[in-house]
């Protein structure tokens, strides 16, 4: 699916269900990638109104503010967000935000090491979506390439979140899953939601 089509899809979804943080998050991400920074800011702020601690949305908003040339605001926002992500144990968005500050000549905030050092045990499965050491799915949810990707990257808890969200997606777009078109919409939403 083209970026413009995806933007349309998630714009419709956000309008149909203004409480849907996935729709606002995905829309913000797509607008940022397309260089529509004003639109990206609106969508990401709406996502954060619904779920203030969304570390990746915070990372994207920080990036967007920098692209809009609002550096002091971006730096303050990123410093807060880095601490929040650190406290939540979400190390990948935390480190991405630290790098972002460094790239702009700012020394990122000092972080107190937590008791256990906050390090993930070696060999543990780390979910690529929530960035936490969690339980992996017992087997791929589908027998195709996408199923393998999900199995390799996504934890049981994130998958459960998607299961709940997929019901919304199917209802909202009135998807008839027997058709290839419906499957494409389903897969696009799944990939955006899980960050695949
Ligand atoms: Zn997860």
Distance between the termini: 14 Å
Q: CATH superfamily membership of the domain at 120-196, which one?
A: Fe(II) trafficking protein YggX
Percentage beta strand: under 5%
Rg over CA atoms, rounded to whole Å, is 18 Å
Helicity level: 55-70%
Order of SSEs, N→C?
HHHHHHHHH
What CATH first level of the domain at 120-196 would be assigned? Mainly Alpha
Low-confidence stretches: 114-118
Mean pLDDT across all amino acids: 90
* Biggest sheet architecture: none
Summarize the structure.
With 196 residues, the protein is mainly α. It has helices spanning 3-16, 21-33, 37-50, 55-67, 71-87, 91-103, 145-153, 156-172, 180-194.
Topology:
Elements (H helix, E strand, L loop, with lengths): L2 H14 L4 H13 L3 H14 L4 H13 L3 H17 L3 H13 L41 H9 L2 H17 L7 H15 L2
Helix pairs in contact: 1-2, 2-3, 2-4, 3-4, 4-5, 4-6, 5-6, 8-9
The structure holds zinc ion.
Polypeptide structure, described:
Helices cover 64% and strands 0% of the residues. It is mostly helical and 196 residues long. It has a domain of 77 residues: Orthogonal Bundle (YggX-like), CATH 1.10.3880.10. α2 runs antiparallel to α3. About 3% of the residues have low confidence. Zinc ion (ZN) binds next to α8.
What labels describe this entry?
mainly alpha, 196 residues, 9 helices, YggX-like, binds zinc ion
